[in-house]
Amino acid sequence: MDLGQIGLWTIAFDLQPASAAREAVAEVEALGFGAVWIPEAMNREVMANAMLLLSASERIVVATGIANLYARDAMSMSAGHKTITSAHPDRFLLGIGVSHKVAVEAMRGHSYDKPLTTMREYLDAMDSALFFAAGPETEPVRVLAALGPKMLELARDRASGAHPYFVPVEHTPIARAALGDGKLLCPEQAVVLETDPATARTIARTHMQTYLTLPNYTNNLRRLGWGDDDLGGGGSDKLVDAIVAWGTEDDVKARVQAHVDAGADHVALQVLTADPRALPMPEWKRLADALL
User: Fold this and answer.
1) Are 163 and 265 in contact (CB under 8 A)?
2) CB–CB of 268/10 below 8 Å?
3) How far apart are CA 189 and CA 169, in angstroms?
């Protein structure tokens, strides 16, 4: 599986009609990005969405960032993983995560249990699940949404690596040390192509405000030394600048290189704009020209 060093993390495909999303992923592939990462929340069902995008492209890897294990039982996740891998060998990367308590209980009506135990038992069930269809010719590849040390260790032992989300560069060497050599480390990096500090930080805070209410993310930031003054009010300027790379293409390139120097194999760029529902194709083209 060739992810390349730089991919895109985006919900933008979900906000377009399916036909437009198919055209857009083909265009992103032509730009030269190695992978597109697609989320699962209140948007398209992520396994079906992956097939939609894979069938409209020829080379690019489609990765789930992240498939919610509460959205389907382990047998269904395993069967879907194998089915998509059979149809598109070496082009589907299954990222699995435990989501967040509010999303699981308030939106889905499930009981949110201990994340590490839940993930371990889920992987056990995936690996022992019956599957009587023709299997894929290539090995299905999975990574875990992992932030803390124990989940990173599980990603090392039970997956091909980790996909950390909403992290500053300082998390990347910690994740690499936990994973060890030979495991994929694919952090997400939010980006704003705007050089005015006030404008850039306003866009960044609009993106960050929900995440700063979720304990999975704030607990991780606290482990890294960020405190109440940083986490409140939409994030301090210092935290905003650490989470979101804003400025010119060269500024983004420097942030990507910082992740790579710290041990990342692949960086998934999430482009943020003043209109969060717009397809950021102009910004993707600018990044492709500068970084690829």
Assistant:
1) no
2) no
3) 9
Number of C-beta neighbours around residue 127 at 10 A: 10
- Preceding omega of 66 cis (within 30 degrees of 0): yes
**Nearest-CA neighbor of 119 among 141, 99, 103, 94?**
99
Condensed to tens digits (0 to 9), the pLDDT of residues 133-176 reads 999 999 999 999 999 999 999 999 999 999 999 999 999 999 99
Q: Any bridge partners for residue 189, and if so which?
A: 269
Residue-averaged pLDDT of the chain = 96
